[in-house]
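Reader question, answered in our methods column.
A reader sent in the components of a multi-part assembly and asked whether the whole thing could be modeled at once rather than chain by chain. We filled in our standard form and ran it. Here is what they sent:
COMPLEX SIZE: two components
ENTRIES:
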Amino acid sequence: MTNHWIDLKNSDSIFIIGCNPAENHPISFKWIEEAMDRGGKLIVVDPRYTRSASKADIYAQVRPGTDIAFLGGMINYALQHDLIHKEYVREYTNATFIVGEKYDFKDGMFCSFDDQEKVYDLKTWAYETGPDGKPLRDLTMQNPRCVYQQLKNHYKRYDIEMVCSITGTKMEDYLKVVKNFCATGRPDKAGTILYAMGITQSTHGTQNVRAVAMLQMLLGNIGIAGGGVNALRGESNVQGSSDYGLLFHLLPGYLKSPEFDNADLKAYVEKWTPKSSDSKSANWLGNTPKYITSMLKAWYGDNATAANDFCYDYLPKRMGSYAYDKIMTKMGKGELEGLVCMGMNPAVGGPDSGSARTALGKLKWLVTVDLWETETSIFWKRPGVNPKDIQTEVFMLPAASSVEKEGSISNSGRWAQWRYKAVEPVGQSMSDLWIIDQFFKRVRNLYTKEKGAFPDPITKLSWNYGNGHEPDVHLVAKEINGSFTKDMTIVDKDKTLEFKAGDPVPMFKYLQADGSTSCGCWIYSGSYTKDGNQMARRDESDPTGLGLFPKWSWCWPVNRRIIYNRASVNPAGEPFNPKRAVIAWDGLEKKWKGDIPDGPWPPMKDDKEGKYPFIMLPEGHARLYALDMKDGPFPEHYEPVESPARNLMSGVQNSPGVKIPKNVSSDLAKFPFIGTTYRMTEHWQTGGMTRSLPWLTELVPDMFVEISESLAKKKGIKKGDKVRVTTERGSIEAMALVTSRLRPFNVEGKQIEQIGMPWHFGYAGLATGDSANLLTPSVGCANTSIPEFKAFLCNLEKGGNKA
Amino acid sequence: MGMSRRQFLQGGAIAAAGVALSGKPAEANADAPVTRIKGLKASTTICPFCAVGCGLLVHTKNGKVVNIEGDPKHPINQGSLCSKGSALYQIAVNERRLQKIMYRAPGSDKFEEKNWDWAMDRIALRMKETRDKSFKVKELNKKDNKEYVVNRTDGMAFFGGAGLDNEECYLWSKFARAMGVGQLEHQARL
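And here is the structure of the entire assembly that came back:
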């Protein structure tokens, strides 16, 4: 989230698309309702009439996987009716930038696509630059090659008739949504967009997110109170786990993991440090050398020196993708020996989970660390297999629960909140911290005693977390925050600051690229300072009245509660909306008041020191036109890989960059219905944490599929009947839930039914049931590989084995 | 006579309705929340389910969790909880929780109980064997037909982290990369 949960109360229009917070983030509705009590309107766009929809002022139905058409139409409407926030768009987005002559778009394809490799040549989409290297701009936005005109041209095809024929939305509903939300383009109005997996789980998921962000840029809704681009994260610490780089392409703090041709630290820094020749651009990631060097110092301590490239050689270098789907394919081919699952359950949680279960049996060894038996830890005795045929050695380790250990987690609004240990772990279970510590120490012992492949990255790793039974979590938190490795004098404007070796770094501004600082994760620098553990703070004061609660816990970066907040003021530093000022420049005191600003510099208008607000991009301006997406600078509508419709927008059916697996089918004779998966209040994720809790299993004891009244009538199905759902990947049986909440979609004049199903069930735990992911396709987003769980084709018949 | 949870809830609803009508709290009895937690130690925690980050209070007695409820001082949830958050007590106190280290030998049809030392030593051995066998110092790039130093272990994958604490995620990340594991992924990809 650019903003945070309590900030929802500041919104005039809350636009929910691709999430269902009343169901999946129930307490967030406290703040949505607070906004509604103050006159704010709630819009819900969803294939189903959800719990959130039942509270909405405006509901519009959309066919799964057609979000770009829906949002593209809104972009078009805002542009055609001149509802955009002009000053914001001109000053803070790249609308004024001139695109190079090579850029082109024709019949669904952007220019320079390599048909064999299935990739675009991104260089041809570059800005046109002047002799000083700066992108050329036209502040009148009249140049036909400026982003504003290109944008207008691209989305003029997304007129309301075209959009509604793709999305199946009723035109009157669509117009209500568009008119209400686009009215937040005024400087004194705030609109927020909330989304989750309904937007991301798509073969064009990243472009769905971009379409959300672009609409918010045009309406001037990013950086302001009650605005923002807000991804509602589904797991208690999936924000933190992403922040700490538990993805193949990342290191902590969203630094990139090195690629094979980043041969040394210099080459790494050269590749991943963005450059800008514009003095008004803060280009914050220009600090990358400081962050990677400080991380290497945290990892390799005194062993990391300038002479040995700070042990950069010890980091593994990637070649190609090791995204989840790629790993599972390799596992299925028997190319992996071992797998460790820390609270993850691939036998239920991933796409095409039947193949995943087979793949687990190709492993030599498997370690699961969880609070419960999960489908993954007992995959070798799952229904329908003979354990004797499975040669995988399985270690099932018991983990402590969240009330049996101490540490922090980061919520969706980036608040890192400290938790305390209330009791000892049950039985012999242990904290994950202890378990990881033991993995490391025992492997290190082996490499110290015996020969082995390149032992140095392990034997030289700095690992000093006290002498207790388990690592001292406070020492880990301090290493993450960072410290000085030698005595330092730093001149910061008119102040001279003295630091001793070992002192905590106050914030990431003080990190250095020469080894004089260490910091495990730069974005968390400032979380544990000389003033103590900032994440444990519980001060209930709210001086702005906006609900920022600046002294409650701590939020990254540098306790900034609303990011990009320099875009909430005009170039002179005056709030666009003085009634909900996030920050404001005090000209007399020469400083910002309110939230922590996105950098200390004076307002953008200041000739000498002013900076553009979007400090994480080298051009300093939010990108209506993107330079680094694999599938195009503008989001373009393509159909999901399995779809009942042809692409009405162009002759290109699916996103061109997506590699389509064999086991998908759009044969409507075999699979006439749209299937979609989702979550519910009473269960969570793969069910490990809920299906063994008597209170919750009593509330929702069975796997079910939701079908419309019209389909039920056609198939002769009553509520509670057993039904079988089948796709090209597999087949499940479940109880039918006949409901008016589901309605068929209008697809080119035909009524196409939808089947909705939760994905929480499996064969382990107290309440069991078939897993919806046996049905879902393993095909992912062109940019991120996130699977297309939300839109696939299936069949449904009455009866099952148990019927 | 035993009472089902459903009957209990119905009773609770009637009692709550009584309070609403009279406007006065019902008289405290042995089961009333106030009496149940009086004088007990309470610590704060954050809900382990979704990422709203609601605060809860955990009451303990003689080293056991006896009650968990919403933290009224927490600015996000102000004491309220959803059905999952309200059920956190049943994670802390649940006979289905794993309490032992279990091992399943190749081809076996059952788990056997082991101790931490045995299991951890054997896992470390497996990790080392796989790392030694699959460690790639160099890899050929097919596009330019050149070899590059990659120092990577391709024989194993590490999954998970969205349910771990930040400090655990950090050590997991640090350990994985020190092992040379490139195949580090978690729930955020799904």
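What stands out: Residues 5-92 of chain B form a domain with the Phosphorylase Kinase; domain 1 fold (CATH 3.30.200.210). Chain B has a mean pLDDT of 88.
Send us your own complexes using the same form.
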